[in-house]
Amino acid sequence: MANAKYDTSDLVALLVYYAVLLITFQLAFGIFGANPVSQLLTDIVAFLPRIVVAIVIVVLASAIAAAVKDLVTGVLGGLSYGRVLGTVASVFVIGLGVIAALSQIGVAIAVTLPVLITVLATVGGILVVGVGGGLIGPMRTRWEGWLSAAEQETRAATPAATPAPVATTPANGAPTQEMASQN
User: Fold this and answer.
1) Cβ contacts of residue 175 below 8 Å, gap of 6+?
2) b/e sequence 6-18, b meaning 16+ C-beta within 10 Å
3) How many Cβ atoms from other residues are within 10 Å of residue 54's Cβ?
4) Would you state the pLDDT for residue 181?
5) What is 98-123 written as a DSSP string?
6) How many CA atoms lie within 13 A of 121 on its CB side?
7) How confident is the model at residue 65 (pLDDT cuts 50, 70, 90)?
8) Contact 62, 98 (CB under 8 A)
C-alpha cells in the first residue's frame, strides 16, 4: 500500500469514523421503533468489526510476505532464480492472506472457493494430460537441464571446501595423517 492514496491507519480511522456515524444513525432511527432502516444499520454496524479484522489480516500477510521474500532472496540471492523464488513465495503468502481476509468477511465460499477449485483442477488436468499424453521425455529433458544449471550455480556460489585429514594405518600399525584426495 506504499503507492496508495490511503495507508492502513487511514483506512481504520475512516472505518471508525463511519462506525460512529452509523451507530449514531442507528440510535436515532431506533427511536421510531423497529423499522427496516434501523435493521439495516444494525447489520452494517455488526459487519464493521469483520472489515477491520480483514484489513489487519491483509496487512499482516503483506508484512509476512515481505519478510519471506527477503529471506528467500537473501538465502538464494547469488543464484539466478533466487529473486523469482522469493517473489513466488511472497505472492503465495499474500494470496493466502487475501483468501483468509475474504473468508473473514464472508466472501470466501461464494467467490474464492470456486476459483481455488478451478485453479487446482486446471493444474491437475495439465499434469494428467501432460504425463499421460507423452510429455514425459520433454519434461525429463527440461528438468535435467534446470537441475544441472542449478547444481552448477550452487557449486559456483559455495566456497571450495578444504580437504579433511584422513587417518591411515601403515604396515607397521602406527597411524599417520594424509590429506584426502579431491575428486
Assistant:
1) 167, 168, 169
2) eeeeebbeeeeee
3) 20
4) 44
5) HHHHHHHHT-IIIIIHHHHHHHHHHH
6) 6
7) very high
8) no
The residue with cell 594405518 is 169
Contact 167, 177 (CB under 8 A): yes
Nearest residue to 154 (alpha-carbon basis) of 72, 68, 82, 70: 82
Q: Is the dihedral of CA 33, 37, 43, 45 positive or negative?
A: negative
The SS3 assignment for 166 reads strand
Cα–Cα nearest to 102, from 115, 89, 90: 115
**CA-to-CA distance for 90 and 43, rounded, in angstroms?**
35
Length of the chain: 183
Confidence of residue 163 (pLDDT cuts 50, 70, 90): low
pTM (predicted TM-score): 0.59
DSSP 47-102: HHHHHHHHHHHHHHHHHHHHHHHHHHHHHSTTSTTHHHHHHHHHHHHHHHHHHHHH
User: Given this model, what pLDDT does residue 67 score?
Assistant: 94
Neighbour tally for 83: CB within 10 Å = 14
